[in-house]
Amino acid sequence: xxxxxxxxxxxxxxxxxxxxxxxxxxxxxxxxxxxxxxxxxxxxxxxxxxxxxxxxxxxxxxxxxxxxxxxxxxxxxxxxxxxxxxxxxxxxxxxxxxxxxxxxxxxxxxxxxxxxxxxxxxxxxxxxxxxxxxxxxxxxxxxxxxxxxxxxxxxxxxxxxxxxxxxxxxxxxxxxxxxxxxxxxxxxxxxxxxxxxxxxxxxxxxxxxxxxxxxxxxxxxxxxxxxxxx
Length: 230
Ligand SMILES: [Zn+2]
What we know:
Blueprint: E1 25-29, E2 34-35, H1 37-44, H2 46-52, H3 75-91, E3 96-98, E4 108-111, E5 117-128, E6 132-139, E7 142-152, E8 154-160, E9 166-172, H4 174-186, E10 201-203, H5 221-227
Antiparallel strand pairs: 1-9, 2-5, 3-4, 4-5, 5-8, 6-7, 7-10, 8-9
This protein binds zinc ion.
């Protein structure tokens, strides 16, 4: 997912931007295989990214617009796929990615809005709150644009991990948005399909060099840059 960051952050003082935040997504049942700190460090190394990143498919590519298939749960096959997804996401500065975005029509996603990344196979939305918030949202597969749309404030998703273990996770705000965005990808839906109107789609303005980034949200430049791509 490529997000401009949630609107709810905009009233917070700037100093908070660099403070550690509460996890946006928490595992509520089970204990999934995660992209923990060790994996993140290895998989974010420039050599690793160069070796594993592939081009992200763009809107219009049929693989993005059809439902993905349930993969056979085989860690030996899924781990290399997750590595390619993660490297491609890092290169594009995303905060989430689906296998379909790198051209693999399988239901596998990464949600990467916290220190630890969650890898979810066959994600299914179990619950979404009736309370919604209008948020800005972008996608690695829709370059140069972001949209404004309503998303539930809270979402719960169940899935299995790459070893076949069931788990459930819950997110709020940006966490819920990312979970729903990535789960949508597995069914062939992009955020642009959820816009009320084309008028809710905007070009991403190039950043002024050297200026701190304060646009749609109150997030830091780095966070915004990471956020501008799922
Ligand atoms: Zn996306």
